[in-house]
Amino acid sequence: MAISGRVIKVGDNISTxxxxxxxxxxxxxDLEKLSEHALEDVVENFHEKAxxxxxxxxxxxxxxxxxxxxxxxxxxxxxxxxxxxxxFARIFFRNAINIGLPVIIVDTTRIFDGDDIIIDLExxxxxxxxxxxxxxxxxxxxxxxxxxxxxxxxxxxxxxxxISFEM
Amino acid sequence: MVQKIFEMKTESDVNPGMMIIVxxxxxxxxxxxxxxxxxxxxxxGKDSLAFPENTAIFLDHAAPSPRKExxxxxxxxxxxxxxxxxxxxxxGQGVCHQIAIESxxxxxxxxxxxxxxxxxxxALGAFATGMGSTDIAVAMGLGKNWFRVPESILIKLVGxxxxxxxxxxxxxxxxxHFGSNGASYQALEFVGDIENIPIHDRLTISNMAIECGAKVxxxxxxxxxxxxxxxxxxxxxxxxxxxxPDAEYVDKLDIKLxxxxxxxxxxxxxxxxxxxxxxxxxxINQVFLGSCTNGRLEDLRMAAKILKGKTVAKGVxxxxxxASKKVYLDALKEGIIETFVDSGACIMAPGCGPCVGVHEGxxxxxxxxxxxxxxxxxxxxxxxxxxxxxSSPLTAAASAITGYITDPRExxx
Lengths: 167, 413
Prior knowledge:
A: alpha/beta; B: alpha/beta; 2 domains; 13 helices
């Protein structure tokens, strides 16, 4: 599976309170409206900038904080095709997989805002379109990749009628 | 201990790093994550819950609701409870984790909740962890979920907490040590002189395990656990749990309890923490006493000891939120609520209060809050242009009186 897009770069320790601020708590059942405010305290007009498909690149500890699944959801709804970071907070990582949003762990120091990159999830390669850099990362466990490929765990369960990892 | 719990549930050998599927004993949602959980559950195509009597809905984040959108979420959740037969704890009953440990969580239970502070249950010797709404929908519908077995980090608590030092000061010190990601995916297992750690301090410590990225923060189940369960009319739920002497750990940490000082997390992260005595120039506008971290009877009682006969500083709001109806009633009977009201505090209905920025004390521009809750991320209490510090109930009470962050050891209790 290959994913390509333009990079929006953010820093370390982006929290779930950054991704969906508490003052929009009441919009949690209106995901369209909620996603309009995604990351707005970190990247001005993020929702507009992400339209058309972007790759969100962070530093360490992306997604720290709450278990709110709305965090990866509003990113995906805003147009984020994948999130790349040096490290992820555990619950965010799992939630992203469950909703079919690819998450990639790799050293992001050399990736800059505005870069055009291509990611091969199976092979574990991330490269800049004009070849100025190429990064390898350990591909996700094949069972987790299959959940992402199905579009998330709900679709996986509907197709396979259960969670069992007999592959 | 984590391995022991999984081995009991799967009846086979279990090692860290393995991906296993286990049945779940208790699953719950709150009103922020519940609606999405049930919508995902409906998408799964199941028409009934796996274990309705072990599934619970808590209306605590908006309690009572300040906006019609949230009220409509409550209407939806109540209808789900009627339709599917799961437990419902309505507005005013209290915070999900507090009610869960009072009435539902048992040692050895596998508990999953759609709230990151579900790890609170670890204080009772349960494997309790927070997950997202869809994971919870899977647990509700299938009665099981997949887990990666975490490695365990042994945290040996040595000695005794001095007077004025609480579980909150201990856990802030631990989170400071690990950083916000240092224990990611791992289980914190607390051992040592734990006969010196009362249940309310264990609950505070387990509650904040997630703040260093841990999957669970688990205490052995011992006489203190038994006493707590008996007090809550659940003596039959007791089961002893302790780690084997030859258990393996990926890291070990010794915490000398008698060296801990009153600690305060400073904006905008939990792990950025300093001693309260070094923050006495920080002027505060609001103090929040409550939350699943420190909203228990013991927390209110210790704060009341400092506040008795004194008044809150001019210009400071003190917002007090008992964590459950039981806590509120007990505090009323002990005269604690009267002490708070006399001092100038606002007493709110049991629930999450101002913790998540939904209601009951949103901060103004440039305002500073000192809270006994568990998270101070940028904008958390409803205004990105504000600052949140975290502390123990004693530090919070002392600071409410002076109007500045104050080491509680400056007061006689």
